[in-house]
Amino acid sequence: MTTPATSRLPLILTDIEGTTSSISFVKDVLFPYARRELPRFVREHGREPEVRRWLDMVALESGGLCQDAMIVETLQGWIDEDRKHTALKALQGMVWAAGYESADFTAPVYPDAVAALRRWHADGHALAVYSSGSVPAQKLLFAHTDAGDLSGLFCGWFDTGVGGKRETGSYARIARELGVPPADILFLSDVVAELDAARDAGMRTTLIDRLADYPRPRSQDDSGGHPRATGFDGVVPDA
Ligand SMILES: CSCCC(=O)C(=O)COP(=O)(O)O
Ligand SMILES: [Mg+2]
């Protein structure tokens, strides 16, 4: 659920992987956990309607798979390919819930991001998230960070339900849903194609180019003309 933003300060919309949190946490912790736990999860929960609808979508889109074992294998292949498919992302979120709840892991958020998010929130900026990870997975991540529960800082959560992250229409939809003109939204991401789409929708943008995630920093040419910062310290929200 998204609360309409009422502040007149720019709203800050942030990506997660490679922006607030490391790529390696997603690739080396979250994805392997989902890959490993999926077979048991589908065995134990595959008949629940909220799970079944996503499994059936995968089965249908893959040409009519008729056994859960084949659906699980397909999903594991999609994890290996880093497919941003809505059904995979919804199921991954449900599997990760168990991981967070049993404290198998917590989510690292870069300390500069934690400090800036808290500061911007205290200053009156509305904050929102847009990630390929499902909204429930986003909420879980920010509720279980190394720095504690940060989920209360955000008033809006968006996933591929609004469209793909490289599509301009997705950003226009987010702005409409937030009730904020695109020009009053600053989008932060590590992916230039996502920033291009946000800029085409009229949003302000900043490329987050973290040394830990991108050992060879992007040049001016590779930055697509977006302002560039190596962490949240370098982001100028009120420009
Ligand atoms: C909600 S955390 C898991 C992130 C994820 O599944 C993913 O694919 C990362 O995508 P992002 O859009 O945050 O780069
Ligand atoms: Mg990213």
Structure description:
- The structure is a single chain.
- This protein has 239 residues and is α/β, with parallel strands linked by helices.
- The protein has two domains: 11-21 and 107-234, Rossmann fold, CATH 3.40.50; 26-101, Transcription Termination Factor Rho, Rna-binding Domain, Chain A, Domain 1, CATH 1.10.720.60.
- It contains eight helices and six strands, in the order E-H-H-H-H-H-E-H-E-H-E-H-E-E.
- It has helices spanning 23-45, 49-61, 68-81, 86-101, 111-123, 135-143, 168-178, 192-200, and strands spanning 11-14, 127-130, 156-158, 185-189, 204-208, 228-229.
- The protein has a six-stranded parallel beta sheet with strand order 3-2-1-4-5-6, sandwiched between helices.
- The protein is globular and about 55 Å long.
- 39% of the residues are buried.
- The model has no long low-confidence stretch (mean pLDDT 95).
